[in-house]
Amino acid sequence: MFNLLKVEFYKLRKFPFGYMVLLLFLGIGIIGGGYKFPYTFENTADVFAANVCDTSLVFTISLAAAFFMGKDFSGRTIDNEIKLGYSRSKILFSKMIAVCSFAAFIHTVWVAVYVLSFAAVRGFDSSVLCAENALWLITVLIQLSAVISGVILITFTTRTVAGAIAISSMYVLICCNILRNYTDAKIFTMSPFCFVQNSDSKNLVFAAVNALVTMAVFLLITVFTFNKAEVK
Hints:
Elements: H1 2-13, H2 16-36, H3 44-52, H4 58-74, H5 77-83, H6 88-122, H7 131-158, H8 161-182, H9 186-189, H10 201-228
Helix pairs in contact: 1-6, 2-6, 3-6, 3-7, 4-6, 4-7, 4-8, 6-7, 7-8, 7-10
């Protein structure tokens, strides 16, 4: 497992599309935080609150995750790992840890850049530095990992780059972008596809538990389908 993790994180460091996504998020954060938000919000806590729960760019993160994992099927990397004797569950969980870490890193950087760009213009204040905001961010990252677990399921089911990207894009576009514009039903607003909107402790606990259950369901289905799949 440790060797697989080392390989996955090495591949992430050599993943050009990942750097493109990072640069995109940095650019949006700098422009939004430095040129738009200084005239909209009063302090860093407000900027943090406006961005930590924003699902607008989860679509881009999911495409990167689908591409990163899908190319290992198309390039027969996973076939070779199985032939080398690695269990399918270890292969799956090593990729899950890698892509969820990537997603969490990108989202955290995006929020941080917004806050720092705002602070560079308006001056830094300590309102953002509190335990509630830290727990809020952690909860959102758990929810993001649950969304990415759906991408993992799709990728390990289709087992092609094109299929993973096509279906994952529809999945995230509908669940994280379209639905939020058409429904405010509690079943959706408390799901992992709608990042928790405030730092209320009860909402954070409920959202985190819901996300963990969703992630577990996605991963159990993925384990079952991957173990049944014929990979030559």
